[in-house]
């Protein structure tokens, strides 16, 4: 999948959702990461063909998605905040999808997502997590050149979130937006961080994990001793620059509960995209 | 065929929410019956006022509200139906089926009470309710659409009833104003046609032609509109 943008911008009146985006990405799964209001959904709605840019252009596999005649079949999507005030049953969605020649994975996904347990409930009476699963069913059960998923695991319990992330990580041609660094790292092979509608960092997995920087989970409230440099703190998780041997010592002595190479959290912190919200979340 | 039935069922679900609709339809038919019965004493204007300004707009609003959905839901349906054509057509079909029993019932009541002359204007009212709902659905969402529909189908015909009972300075309304009057308030225009430049039959034909054009234009607008989340 190739995703390309030139001076891409979308405005809502006088406010720009995204502006001046330039990128040329070749990846199977692209993760767009950023905090609330960073422009993720706006970017995804352009890449899904639902919105035309106010300036510049975007291309997915060489085609501007909003101008595609076959966009409803070639691009499948699921957007966040699934609240459907329509009096249909979940079963109606499943049957409609089954009747499409493009959607051959419906029954498998109904089982894998656990939708079978609420098939006869009305869409306007199910929980937000169940509605999210219905949303994902529509996006994932049909053949598509590109699948766009906005916060795919929001509203889901950790078990279902794991199932969904596992599914996504096995697909090709996926663009997801998330504010969870772990989710992005679990599924994507290219990453883009947005802040206030602009790209503050982008790169692949090699670039993401290239430095000797680690995420360290504390057992206590602080990290005593020497031999490391604390870059940022997200609650009980510290981003530190240190030798692996030194971290092994700290782990053996019980000062830290574990550590791993810092990926998006470090980039978040060093690009200034984190902030209070992230610190509170962790 | 099976696929079409499933798509139709998607939009028929919840179209007739009981008991709200049943009560409203029964109430509308009873009101139409008494209004028709009173034509001999109160004149036809009373019947037109009750039916065109009050009951048909409320009934139409209830039915149209079913297809006036928010952008997020429409974006979801566009993916499910694989494009705007399916969403638009099945919404219009569902709306037509929803409007039919209530409006047909009123037409039958007037005919059975000896006033079959109302049937053409009521039939045209049915077609242009579909057109008005279609164009509103193409540009507005949810509550804004419902309020606009009621204003267009109730307040505007009421305004025309005042306008059409008084001749303009040059003695009559021109083709444009007459066409608009027959489109927005066919029953009122049919009743108060002397100052309009078209005969009742000609006016209703023009109204039907405008309605069909609006349904087509509404599709073009709907298919080009951005339903972004």
Question: What features would you describe in this structure?
Answer:
- The complex is a heterodimer of chains A (282) and B (229).
- Chain A has helices at 40-47, 71-74, 90-98, 106-112, 128-140, 158-169, 181-187, 205-208, 244-252, 264-271, 276-281; strands at residues 2-12, 15-26, 29-33, 55-60, 75-78, 146-150, 174-178, 190-195, 198-204, 213-218, 228-234, 237-242, 256-261.
- With 282 residues, chain A is an alpha/beta fold.
- Chain A is globular.
- The two termini of chain A are 33 Å apart.
- Mean pLDDT of chain A is 89; it is low at 275-282.
- By secondary structure, chain B is mostly helical.
- The two termini of chain B are 31 Å apart.
- Chain B has helices at 2-12, 20-37, 39-42, 44-65, 71-80, 84-112, 119-139, 142-164, 175-184, 186-191, 200-224.
- Chain B is globular.
- Chain A binds chain B through residues 41, 45, 50-52, 72-73, 76-77, 79-89, 92-93, 95-97, 99-100, 102, 135, 138-139, 150, and chain B through 2-3, 6-7, 9-10, 13-14, 17, 69-70, 72-73, 75-76, 78-83, 226-229.
Question: What features would you highlight for this structure?
Answer:
heterodimer; A: 282 residues; six-stranded mixed sheet; four-stranded antiparallel sheet; disordered C terminus; B: 229 residues; mainly alpha
Compose a concise summary of this entry.
The complex is a heterodimer of chains A (282) and B (229). Chain A is an alpha/beta fold. Chain A has helices at residues 40-47, 71-74, 90-98, 106-112, 128-140, 158-169, 181-187, 205-208, 244-252, 264-271, 276-281, and strands at 2-12, 15-26, 29-33, 55-60, 75-78, 146-150, 174-178, 190-195, 198-204, 213-218, 228-234, 237-242, 256-261.
SSE topology sketch:
The complex is a heterodimer of chains A (282) and B (229).
Chain A: E1 2-12, E2 15-26, E3 29-33, H1 40-47, E4 55-60, H2 71-74, E5 75-78, H3 90-98, H4 106-112, H5 128-140, E6 146-150, H6 158-169, E7 174-178, H7 181-187, E8 190-195, E9 198-204, H8 205-208, E10 213-218, E11 228-234, E12 237-242, H9 244-252, E13 256-261, H10 264-271, H11 276-281
Chain B: H1 2-12, H2 20-37, H3 39-42, H4 44-65, H5 71-80, H6 84-112, H7 119-139, H8 142-164, H9 175-184, H10 186-191, H11 200-224
């Amino acid at each position: 999948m190739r995703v390309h943008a030139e001076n891409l911008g979308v405005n809502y009146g006088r406010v720009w959702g995204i502006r001046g985006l330039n990128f040329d990405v070749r990846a199977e799964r692209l993760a767009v990461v950023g905090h609330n209001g960073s422009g993720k959904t706006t970017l995804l709605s352009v890449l899904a063909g639902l919105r035309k840019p106010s300036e510049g252009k975007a291309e997915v596999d060489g085609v501007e998605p909003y101008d595609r005649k076959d966009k409803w079949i070639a691009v499948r999507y699921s957007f966040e905040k699934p609240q459907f005030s329509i009096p249909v049953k979940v079963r109606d969605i499943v049957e409609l999808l089954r009747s499409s020649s493009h959607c051959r994975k419906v029954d498998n996904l109904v089982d894998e997502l656990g939708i079978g347990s609420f098939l006869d409930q009305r869409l306007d009476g199910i929980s937000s997590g169940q509605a999210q699963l219905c949303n994902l069913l529509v996006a994932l059960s049909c053949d598509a050149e590109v699948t766009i998923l906005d916060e795919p695991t929001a509203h889901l319990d950790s078990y279902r979130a794991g199932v969904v992330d596992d599914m996504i990580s096995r697909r090709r041609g996926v663009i997801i937006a998330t504010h969870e660094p772990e989710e992005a790292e679990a599924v994507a092979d290219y990453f883009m961080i947005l802040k206030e509608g602009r790209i503050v960092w982008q790169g692949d997995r090699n670039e993401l994990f290239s430095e000797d920087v680690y995420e360290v989970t504390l057992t206590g409230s602080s990290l005593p001793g020497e031999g490391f440099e604390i870059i940022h703190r997200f609650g009980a998780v510290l981003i530190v620059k240190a030798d692996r041997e030194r971290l092994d010592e700290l782990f053996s002595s019980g000062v830290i509960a574990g550590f791993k190479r810092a990926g998006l959290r470090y980039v978040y912190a060093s690009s200034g995209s984190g902030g209070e919200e992230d610190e509170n979340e962790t | 065929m099976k696929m079409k039935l499933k798509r139709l069922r998607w939009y028929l679900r919840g179209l007739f929410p009981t008991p709200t609709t049943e009560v409203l339809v029964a109430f509308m038919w009873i009101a139409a019956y008494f209004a028709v019965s009173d034509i001999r004493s109160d004149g036809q204007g009373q019947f037109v006022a009750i039916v065109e300004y009050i009951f048909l707009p409320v009934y139409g609003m209830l039915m149209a509200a079913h297809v006036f959905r928010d952008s997020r839901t429409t974006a979801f349906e566009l993916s499910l139906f694989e494009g705007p054509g399916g969403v638009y057509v099945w919404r219009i079909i569902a709306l037509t089926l929803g409007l039919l029993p209530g409006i047909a019932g009123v037409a039958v009541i007037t005919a059975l009470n000896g006033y079959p002359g109302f049937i053409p204007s009521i039939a045209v009212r049915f077609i242009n309710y579909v057109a008005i709902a279609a164009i509103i659905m193409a540009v507005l969402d949810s509550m804004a659409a419902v309020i606009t529909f009621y204003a267009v189908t109730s307040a505007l015909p009421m305004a025309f009833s005042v306008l059409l009972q008084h001749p303009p300075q040059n003695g009559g309304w021109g083709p444009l104003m007459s066409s608009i009057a027959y489109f927005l308030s066919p029953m009122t225009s049919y009743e108060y046609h002397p100052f309009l430049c078209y005969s009742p039959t000609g006016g209703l034909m023009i109204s039907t032609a405008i309605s069909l054009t609006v349904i087509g234009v509404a599709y073009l607008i709907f298919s080009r509109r951005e339903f972004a989340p």
